[in-house]
Write a structure and sequence with these properties.
By secondary structure, this protein is mainly α. Strands 1-2 form a two-stranded antiparallel sheet. It folds into two domains: about 55 residues, no CATH class; about 100 residues, no CATH class. It is built from nine helices and two strands; from the N terminus they run ααααααββααα.
């Protein structure tokens, strides 16, 4: 299992590197399916500059529980905490917002992913979380979808901008970027 600090540093390193350089450095040369832990742990230490993981995450990623982007974050998180479903309702695939994701962000051959430019998000997570929120009659479905996309994800402003742009949730036009 990969340590949490390595996941955070990998995300940041990926954003700062070309894909070739990133892959060359991050994966072990003799066993390409395994991480080069020496590079990854060293990368975390360089990125964190001796700071704790919590401080590193706070300084490099959006905290959605206190951000302006998801005003109902705590409400949605409470709904999710009460619903331990690990699957999604099949009819959620008929939802117009999900159909948009399926059309423009679901890459054929990658059934487990939605792709927003360089940002990859778990398709099953989005479908499961959005299905739970919709089943609980949340009012703002665009915000619920954004919550589902960002839930438990380490995202910086640039990545969030990319998601907003590709979803056409114009951030400049609305205070929270939602129509």
């Amino acid at each position: 299992m990969i340590k949490k600090e390595y996941i955070a540093s990998l995300y940041k390193l990926k954003g700062e590197s070309s894909s070739g350089t990133y892959n060359e450095n991050v994966y072990a040369k003799k066993e390409p399916e395994k991480l080069n832990y020496e590079f990854v742990s060293d990368g975390f230490m360089k990125l964190a500059h001796g700071k704790s993981l919590d401080e590193f995450v706070k300084n490099n990623f959006i905290n959605f529980s206190t951000s302006k982007y998801l005003p109902n974050y705590k409400k949605y998180k409470a709904i999710i905490a009460k619903n331990l479903d690990i699957s999604f309702e099949e009819d959620i695939l008929n939802d117009p917002l999900i159909q948009n994701l399926e059309t423009y962000h679901h890459v054929i051959g990658h059934d487990l992913q939605y792709v927003f430019g360089a940002v990859i998000i778990s398709r099953l997570k989005v479908l499961r979380i959005y299905s739970i929120l919709k089943k609980n009659h949340v009012e703002n479905l665009e915000e619920a979808l954004l919550f589902a996309i960002t839930y438990n994800s380490l995202l910086n402003e640039e990545s969030l901008d990319l998601i907003f742009t590709t979803l056409k949730f114009g951030r400049e036009e609305k205070e929270y970027g939602l129509s």
